Amino acid sequence: QVELVESGGGSVQAGDSLRLSCAASGRTISRYVMGWFRQAPGKEREFVAQITTNGDSIYYADPVKGRFTISRDNAKNTVYLQMNSLKPEDSAVYYCGVFTGWKTHTVDYWGQGTQVTVSS
Fold first, then answer.
1. What torsion, rounded to 10 degrees, do the Cα atoms 96, 86, 88, 57 define?
2. Are 79 and 109 in contact (CB under 8 A)?
3. What is the pLDDT of residues 75-109, one digit of tens each?
4. Of 43, 45, 50, 79, which has the fewest Cβ atoms less than 10 A away?
5. Cα 27 to chain center, whole Å?
6. Is 18 helix (H, G, I), strand (E, B) or coil?
């Protein structure tokens, strides 16, 4: 069992930046592909970004390419999502997840989510 706790969300203006963190406990995440999803009101949960166990490969959804950066610190059992040049359409609850494998969108464990609100 892996427990994930996201933090770092908030309310910002368009063009601002936020850094989300996902702290894991229960097991080391070093053996897992990790990543982020988001869900806006009335919409399905959508994939955002994914990172391999040692961080050597990263995969982004098209809407966030060039603006978001995923990273991980296995020593701290934490995954990060740096979000720059935020847009109102980035507003959503952001969830961290332990993926079943690379370039899959199936998640074994979810966090509780952190709200990001971007106003224009």
1. -40
2. no
3. 999 999 999 999 999 999 999 999 988 888 899 99
4. 43
5. 18
6. strand
